[in-house]
Each structure stands twice: as structure tokens, then as C-alpha cells.
Design a protein that fits this description.
- Chain B: Pfam families: ETF (PF01012).
- Chain B: GO terms for molecular function: electron transfer activity.
- The complex is a heterodimer of chains A (391) and B (259).
- The longest helix of chain A has 37 residues, at 236-272.
- In chain A, a hairpin with a 2-residue loop joins β9 and β10 (278-279).
- The relative contact order of chain A is 0.12.
- In chain A, strands 1-4-5-8 form a four-stranded mixed β-sheet, with helices on one face. Chain A has a four-stranded antiparallel β-sheet with strand order 2-3-7-6, covered by helices on one side.
- Chain A has helices at residues 6-23, 27-32, 40-47, 67-81, 83-103, 106-118, 236-272, 284-315, 321-350, 360-368, 378-388, and strands spanning 122-126, 142-146, 149-160, 167-178, 184-192, 198-200, 214-225, 229-230, 274-275, 278-279.
- Chain A is α+β, with helices and mostly antiparallel strands and 391 residues long.
- Chain B has one domain (2-219): HUPs (Rossmann fold).
- The radius of gyration of chain B is 21 Å and the shape is globular.
- With 259 residues, chain B is an alpha/beta fold.
- Helix content of chain B is 29%, strand content 23%.
- Chain B has helices at 36-50, 67-76, 94-108, 128-136, 189-195, 205-208, 216-219, 245-255, and strands at residues 2-7, 9-11, 32-34, 55-61, 80-84, 113-116, 140-144, 147-150, 153-159, 164-170, 173-177, 200-203.
- In chain B, the strands form three sheets. Chain B has a seven-stranded parallel β-sheet with strand order 7-11-6-1-4-5-12, sandwiched between helices. A three-stranded antiparallel β-sheet of chain B has the order 8-9-10, with no helix packed on it.
- Classes of the chains: A alpha+beta (391), B alpha/beta (259).
- Chain A binds chain B through residues 7, 10-11, 14, 17-18, 46-49, 51-52, 61, 70, and chain B through 71, 75, 185-193, 196.
Chain lengths: 391, 259
């Protein structure tokens, strides 16, 4: 009951090797230079990481069930070495591939999915705006339909994978009208990279996740064909909420990887670093911190795997949406807060060295904070959990 | 073209190396894996297969856990596996291992090319490929960093400090490859799933018709009589600069024949 299958472990092992060999030796430099390692994307495609939840006809794994759990394992293992690479996969699948796979027409799927799954291209999803985050109803970006074209005006903020050299398309939510009750009608529209009027703003100067690609986007009279509507008109908001549920579990997996990395680094350091002639780990002030890390990692992992499993069960109709929503919010709030605490404990155990970029824990510390914010803040998660309890 | 790749399951080089009472490697408590140097041979085989027709069979000799080396090769893309496993094999030296590999390869069917890595990452003797070629009566092209097959011949380049040889042999042949030949692939998710359905034969000594007296500790021609831990690194020499630091440093390097 509390063990993954041999297949899961075999897969984890491969992703771990990949991360150790292809990411770990270079990540400090990429992080320092704010470099997006674009060359890793097709390599991850070859490993099959972008296709775990995708049918075979688009080059995916074609699993009958269980794909999402595999994806979370991959995100966790990449995240154990570097969060930026982990979020590139997480967003690439959850925000890039998933909406097209779930809501796209046959033509849209044929056009975009094979290259996305192969890691030749990346796609982004633009929901957040300077003045609209989880409050997606406050979306200001507008799209008007005339002469067979949507003309988009507005701006999006913090859009992952939107400005890489291999970004093929960004799906954006926009107001396409007004409902009878006066609330905005929101739809999702696909905007191919390079469309006139679609500007990718310079990369953000971030606290962490330096090797992930994040941009603001501006749309100024940006016209795309009417067929670029993704899914049904007016369904953009609902579509996005579903996307967010999956994303929360994925972020949770990323947090598990980070906490695991803190545990491993701290355990090793506590055994090898000596002070007053003895390894620092013989002092309870240090060893109890490491013990706390172990507890957090275990708890976060179990919550995350449970949520991932529920999501896989939902896909085959054995669980309800409400159950998954609740489990996703619980996993996300716990794991991400645990990860932030874990990086604080790890840097503390490393002492002065923990403040030095020479050691990975310094990067971990900077990378952790966003976990409590992205895909719904901790406060939003608690709001959802309380709502799920009928409050 | 049918290709056989010889692979070895070795203790993880990152782990602590210990020996048992009979001077054989202690595998308890150490993670094992497909010898990294053999991954290059598997990759070379897969590349040849992908550029034409054929089948890749991996063969290993080792304890039960050695099945993992076969599995990893199948996950990378090999088609079938052979695992020679028998309690009596324990302690076999290179010559005895080459006998077992030769018998297993003969039993596994028709082949055009036998591939091996540069050396195992545990024993690092590099002699099994040559011994195996002798037992199979094959021309041997060892330690090459390129490999081409055209018609009935195989061609490879062996790089040394002073020159590079290009060696050609007629098929069937045995070739061992270095770690310069390619970049081994990672198993893909599909590869991991597909490997589960690929056939693996497990053969005992009886299956191979090999007499137990010819292998194992007792049947081996060589014997490890003792072992010693590498001595701890000695303290470095500190040169104090009293205006002549450069000279002292140069003298030291010259004395060590570095310059």
C-alpha cells in the first residue's frame, strides 16, 4: 500500500540519473547566468517526460491510466536537482500540453502536440495579469471577433515557457463578451509565437528559478484566426480552474523534490562537517533539524502521491472532482510550506556556507519561496480547503 | 544483422568496496548496476540496429541481481536477454567467464557481431573480449572508438598515444569499444515499459553443458590470494616561500619528473 511499483522506481531511477548527469554539473552556472537550458527540452522529450499523459497518436506514452503519477515522479526528481528544470517540465505539460490535449480540436492537437511531446517546442498558458491572478474573473485582456479573426488587446504576467527559443504557442484567456448576469465571458485563445502584435517582454529579474523562462506578454491589436479559440467560447475560466488543480499537485511534487534535496544535503553535511573536533550532527541542535526534515519529506511525499493517485483515478472515473481538488490543495499547501521550511533548516545547518552560492542549498533557499505562491498561494489553498469542508 | 552484446553487473563504484572471506567482491549492501563502460557497447549495437535490420541480444554472467544489467540494456532498446546464473559460477575469473559467455553466445543462435565494453568498472582487466574471441574463433578488433559495418566487414579505429590504427575484420567478429565511441542513451519511458515484455532466458551450467569444475573459484586459473586497502593519502609537502619559493617549487616538480 505504501510502495510504488517496480516500474515507478525504474522510471524514477532514469530521471534521477538524467538530472544528476545532465543538470547537476551545470546548474550553478546556468542559475548564475539566468540561462534557460533549452537544449535539455528535447532530451527530456526523448526520455518521454512530456508525453506521460498523452496518447500514442501524438507521440505520448499512451497509458490507459496512471500517467499523472509518473509525471509527478519526474517533476520530483528533476526538482531534487533543480527547481527551474522541474518547473519547465511541470509547466510544459500542465500548462502547455494539457489544455490543448483536453480542449483542442483535432486540427489543433495534430498541429501542436507531436512537437510539444517530442520536446522540439514548448507552449505556455497566459492567465495571470498584472491585476488578475487566482481571481481570473478580473481578467482585463479582451478579444473581439470580427471578419473571422480574434483581435487581442491586453497584458499577461509571469508566463512560464512563453519566451524560449522553442516556444510555439501561448494560450491566453481573454474577455470575449459579457454574460447575461453581467459577469465577463472568458475564453481561451491560442496565439502562435511571432504573431504580429504579440510581444514577449524581457525576462523578469526573479528571486529564484533563474533558469526557468518567465515573461510578461503584451497584446496590441494582435489578430489570430477564429479557429484559434481553444475549447468552447465562454469556457475559458472553467477550463483554467481544472488546469490549476493538476498544477497544484505538480508544484507539490516539485516541493517534495526540493525538501528531499535539503534532507540529503543536510544529512551529508551533518556527518562530514566538524566543529569542536566532532561532526556537527552529533549535536541535537543539528540532528533534530535533520530529523524534522525527514518527517517533512515523508509527509509531503505521501500527500503528494495520494493527490496524484486520486487525479489518475479521477481520469478513469473512479473518483470525484471534489476529492481531487481537496487533496490537491492539501498537498500543495503542506508540501510547499514544508519545502520553504526545509530550505531554511538546511541553510542553517550549513551555517556560513549555506549563505554561499558555492553550495546548492543557497539556490534552494532562493528557489523555495515561489512554491508558496505559484498555482494559487497558500492562502488560496486554505480558502479552498475550508470551502471543501463546508465553511 | 544479429548483434550480441556482453554486459556485466558491477557494484556501484560510488559505494564502499569490500571483499568477502574468499577474496571475492562483497556485493551485499552495495547497489549494483550495468557497468557504465558496457553502456557504450549497448549503444553501439543499438545504433547499428537502427541504421539497418537486425536484433540485439545482451548476455551477462552473474548472480541473480545481475538480471538488472540485462534489464537496463533492454530498457535502452536491446531486443532480448540471456542471463547465465548458477551458484557454481561464484568466483569465476576472466578465463572462466569467457568460457561461459562463449557457450551462452553459441547457444543463443546465429550472430554476426559480438560487442563488448572497454573493461568492467570493477575488475578493469579488459581481457575477457580477447579471450572470448579466441574461444569463439572470431577475429578480434579491440578497444575501438569508431565502428562501421559495411557488407561483410567491420571497421574501427583504435586510438593510442602515438598513433591511430584503423582495423578491419570480416564478420562474424568480436569488437570491444571505448567510452569515446558514442553517448549512451537514457532509457525512455516507453523503453522501460517495453522492456517488461522482452524475452530473457536464464541458463544454468547444465543448460550450457558446462562442467562445474571448469568454472567458479575452484575451476578458475587465477586466484586472488590477498587484497589490501589503498593506503591513505599522505600529507602534502609545504614549501615556505622565503624569497626562493619559485625555485623550490620548480625543483620539487623536477624531482617528481613533472617538468
Amino acid at each position: 500500500m505504501f510502495e510504488l511499483s517496480k516500474d515507478h522506481e525504474d522510471f524514477r531511477q532514469v530521471v534521477r540519473e538524467f538530472a544528476q548527469e545532465q543538470v547537476a554539473p551545470h546548474i550553478a552556472e546556468w542559475d548564475r547566468d539566468h540561462h534557460f537550458p533549452s537544449h535539455l527540452v528535447p532530451q527530456m522529450g526523448e526520455l518521454g517526460l512530456f508525453g506521460l499523459v498523452v496518447p500514442q497518436e501524438y507521440g505520448g506514452a499512451g497509458l490507459d491510466e496512471g500517467g499523472f503519477t509518473y509525471l509527478c515522479l519526474a517533476i520530483e526528481e528533476l526538482g531534487r536537482v533543480d527547481q527551474s528544470v522541474g518547473i519547465t517540465l511541470s509547466a510544459g505539460v500542465g500548462l502547455g500540453i494539457n489544455p490543448i490535449l483536453t480542449y483542442g480540436s483535432d486540427e489543433q492537437k495534430q498541429q501542436f502536440l507531436p512537437d510539444l511531446v517530442a520536446g522540439k517546442t514548448l507552449a505556455g498558458f497566459g492567465l495571470t495579469e498584472p491585476d488578475a491572478g487566482s481571481d481570473a474573473g478580473a481578467t482585463r485582456t479582451r478579444a473581439t471577433l470580427a471578419d473571422g479573426h480574434w483581435t487581442i488587446n491586453g497584458a499577461k504576467a509571469f508566463i512560464t515557457n512563453s519566451g524560449t527559443d522553442r516556444t510555439s504557442v501561448v494560450t491566453v484567456t481573454a474577455r470575449t463578451g459579457e454574460r447575461e448576469n453581467g459577469r465577463p465571458e472568458i475564453s481561451a485563445i491560442m496565439v502562435p509565437a511571432g504573431t504580429p502584435g504579440f510581444t514577449v517582454e524581457p525576462a523578469y529579474d526573479k528571486l529564484g528559478w533563474n533558469s526557468s523562462d518567465t515573461h510578461g506578454l503584451t497584446f496590441s491589436g494582435c489578430a489570430v484566426p477564429q479557429e484559434n479559440l481553444l475549447g468552447e467560447r465562454g469556457q475559458g475560466y472553467r477550463q483554467f480552474l481544472k488546469t490549476l488543480d493538476d498544477g497544484r499537485v505538480a508544484i507539490s511534487a516539485l516541493a517534495v523534490g526540493l525538501a528531499q534535496a535539503c534532507l540529503e544535503a543536510s544529512t551529508e553535511y551533518a556527518k562530514t562537517r566538524t566543529a569542536f573536533g566532532r561532526p556537527i550532527g552529533v549535536n541535537q541542535g543539528v540532528s533534530f533539524k535533520v530529523a524534522d526534515l525527514a518527517v517533512m519529506v515523508d509527509a509531503a511525499r505521501l500527500l503528494t502521491y495520494k493527490a496524484a493517485w486520486l487525479k489518475d483515478e479521477l481520469e478513469v472515473g473512479r473518483r470525484s472532482v471534489a476529492e481531487v481538488k481537496q487533496a490537491a490543495a492539501i498537498a500543495k499547501v503542506y508540501s510547499t510550506e514544508a519545502a520553504v521550511t526545509a530550505t531554511r533548516l538546511a541553510t542553517q545547518i550549513f551555517g556560513g556556507n549555506g549563505f554561499m552560492e558555492e553550495y546548492p542549498v543557497a539556490r534552494f533557499y532562493r528557489d523555495a519561496k515561489i512554491l508558496e505562491i505559484g498555482e494559487g498561494t497558500s492562502e488560496v489553498q486554505r480558502m479552498l480547503i475550508a470551502r471543501g469542508l463546508g465553511l | 544483422m544479429n548483434i550480441v552484446v556482453c554486459v556485466k553487473y558491477v557494484p556501484d563504484a560510488q559505494g564502499d568496496r569490500t571483499f568477502k572471506d574468499d577474496n571475492t567482491t562483497d556485493r551485499e549492501g552495495v547497489d549494483g548496476l550495468l557497468s557504465e563502460l558496457d553502456e557504450y557497447a549497448v549503444e553501439a549495437a543499438l545504433k547499428l540496429k537502427e541504421s539497418g535490420e537486425g536484433e540485439v541480444t545482451v548476455v551477462t554472467v552473474g548472480p541473480e541481481a545481475a538480471a538488472d544489467a540485462v534489464k537496463k540494456s533492454l530498457q535502452m532498446g536491446a531486443d532480448k536477454g540471456v542471463h547465465v546464473c548458477d551458484d557454481a559460477i561464484h568466483g569465476s575469473d576472466a578465463a572462466a567467464t569467457s568460457l561461459l559467455l562463449a557457450e551462452a553466445i553459441k547457444k543463443s543462435g546465429e550472430y554476426d557481431l559480438v560487442l563488448a565494453g572497454l573493461a568492467s568498472t570493477d575488475g578493469t582487466m579488459s581481457v575477457v573480449p580477447a579471450m572470448l574471441a579466441e574461444r569463439l574463433g572470431l577475429p578480434q578488433v579491440t578497444q575501438v572508438s569508431t565502428l562501421e559495418v559495411e557488407g561483410g566487414t567491420v571497421k574501427g579505429r583504435r586510438d593510442s598515444d602515438v598513433a591511430s590504427d584503423t582495423i578491419e575484420a570480416s564478420l562474424p567478429a568480436l569488437v570491444s569499444v571505448t567510452d569515446q565511441i558514442n553517448e549512451p542513451r537514457y532509457p525512455s519511458f516507453k523503453g522501460i515499459m517495453a522492456a517488461k515484455k522482452k524475452p530473457v532466458e536464464t541458463w544454468s551450467l547444465a543448460d550450457l553443458g558446462v562442467d562445474a569444475e571448469r568454472v567458479g573459484l575452484a575451476g578458475s586459473w587465477t586466484k586472488v590470494t590477498s587484497f589490501a586497502k589503498r593506503p591513505p593519502r599522505e600529507k602534502g609537502e609545504i614549501v615556505t616561500d622565503e624569497g626562493d619559493g619559485g625555485t623550490k617549487l620548480a625543483e620539487y616538480l623536477a624531482a617528481q619528473k613533472f617538468v
